[in-house]
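Figure 2 data, in text form.
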Amino acid sequence: MKKIIALVLALTMVFALCAISASADDEFHIGIVTGSVSQSEDDRRGAEAFQAMYGEDMVKLAIYPDNFTEELETTIQTIVNMSDDPLMKAIIVNQAVPGTTEAFRQIKERRPDILCFAGEAHEDLPEIGSAADLVVNNDFVARGYLIIRTAHELGCDTFVHISFPRHMSYETMSRRVAVMKKACEEFGMSFVLETAPDPTSDVGVAGAQAYILEKVPEWVEKYGKNAAYFCTNDAHTEPLLKQLLEYGGCFVEADLPSPLMGYPGALGLDLTEEAGDFAAILAKVESAIVEKGGEGRFGTWAFSYGYTVSAGLAQHAYNVITGESELDDIDDISDAYAVFSPGAEWNGSSYTNAETGVKSENTFLIYQDTYIMGNPGYYMSATEIEVPEEYFTTK
């Protein structure tokens, strides 16, 4: 009897190992949906980098409309269409704009076997978390505190937050504003809200950028050169940086930080030769910042957030599908991100519902250390700072 039991156990282990091997070797596809290069270049480039690593046969890419708020049905259908592929095993959407939740629900009805990952969700996190297998956003709570703390350490006395009603209706952004206000009080700084046009409105990207170009000189005159500025929209970033370099002011980091976010256009840099090499990109951007007198006043993440999320979430999906990682393990997620941000320090935690204080099991907030450009530049060690617990339920 003992021999029979031992034989059964041995055969069970063999079959299990064969099953794991088969699942890893079976052909499968991973889909990544992003915005366009004009709206979210870093997100798109990250998707392309993952595709270049694993090949076009495995990795399928799609783009949702620039005017996604007005073309909701097209956005939903673009995401859902990925599930028509019988070999599709994971769909990543970055940024997960409005409509992603509904798209994921439709996909799960048709193909419950497909992993649905949301990067930088625009919809309420509990809502999209109910449809997605995994949601990963930038840590709007910790960063809300750390950006203000960094601005204070750089000698700023005022913080100017630039946004518009659509963004301020998002829980992630409205909570971050509340955290920023509270942190400004803690560090004795003034907090100011300024409104700019929504690039998805009738004025478009060009009109929104023209507004920023016109208003920054007035803001610098009004708030002084020791003010730090922050905008919630990618399209606003380039003109904001361009004018701050010209008129004065500080910029800790972008909403979705990257040395590619706004800096090349604001500085007139051609980074064709440095494409994909973030160490070289950062060095070239930093040199131009110093040359224009911005030393010690402009920051970023050394590796693009949008780029890392697109590629990193896809890598995590690959690792989960092949049995190398756990779906909801923050360390496994960080390891996947690290493939595309070698040497960068990351920190993060589970999303905490401000109303209930309950932590989510499938929604995570993550951030990278802040790098201030100078000669030499330096990290702020933001990932080592413990954010006071009270901020995680501030709203």
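Caption note: Confidence is low (pLDDT under 50) at residues 1-24.
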